[in-house]
Design a protein that fits this description.
Elements (H helix, E strand, L loop, with lengths): L11 E5 L20 E2 L2 E2 H11 L4 E6 L4 H6 L4 H10 L2 H11 L3 E6 L6 H6 L2 H4 L4 E4 L3 E3 L5 H12 L2 E7 L9 E7 L7 E9 L10 E9 L2 H8 L10 H10 L7 E5 L4 E3 L3 H14 L4 H13 L2
Helix pairs in contact: 3-4, 8-9, 10-11
The structure holds 1-O-phosphono-alpha-D-glucopyranose.
Amino acid sequence: MTHGSPNPRANKAVIPAAGMGTRFLPATKAMPKEMLPVVDMPAIQYVVAEAKAAGLDDVLMITGRSKRSLEDHFDRVPALEHTLELKGDFGKLDKIQEATNLGNIHFVRQNDALGLGHAVLCAKQHVGREPFAVLLGDDLINEREDLLERMIDVQQEKGGSVIALMEVPRENISAYGVAEVSALEGSTGDVVRVTGLVEKPDADLAPSNLAVIGRYVLSPAVFDVLERTEPGRGNEIQLTDALQVLAEGEGEGFGVHAVVFSGKRYDTGDKLSYLQAVIELACDRDDLGPGLRPWLKDFADAL
Ligand code: G1P
């Protein structure tokens, strides 16, 4: 890049939301897992709001069959809005309009469930040749954290792709993509270079305890790699495998860095972590916290 012409900044977000949600059956038998409420808002709305807060106004959701309610949730509901207006219930009106006001949301369908890498490839035409963010709907990052914005900054500065890593206990590591990293010269900060990646390795073969979490800021070069990526773990086209190629290769769009995150993240695809998310977020809220916190203390004392 010549001096004075900064790298382009990611301004589109891709949110894969085509998964089946089998971990939450029977709740997800007739309802997408992304619509499960976390307190009183569907999980997916937190993720779209996070994208918007990081300056990503253009959101593309990759959906599949039986995901119509996702489109409906981000659409207007004139009859309900009208009723609330007549009643003068502007608080509720604001609440339902929040989802519609989150910016430009587009939808594309992944016709075959061939894996996360394949879902991201479905965004190729919409994204074009710009860096872009990917947010996985199962991962909730507390709104007080600025992880995504930080990753966008790092991507703009360094080029290539940027992933987010988090230390997890060894016994949980095989549920994640796992990274091998090296420190950046002269840096003691939270940014490292990624030298290798492996999807869901056995715990004794994992190169570290640094797990890939569901936030990525990717170079469009990932599309070229994904087009050539063969099915990997679970016979699915894995985003982690494409990132491994980008990490070890050289040239335009190659190279992977990571921001090591130590803040609050919940996996709403996992029942225990989902319950923790609901409780923690409700405790934080002005309308629910004062009632919930003392009750929770008594409840825990009685256990
Ligand atoms: C996906 C990725 C994995 C990553 C995880 C984070 O796996 O393939 O590399 O660590 O998200 O949540 P999934 O949880 O969809 O199986």
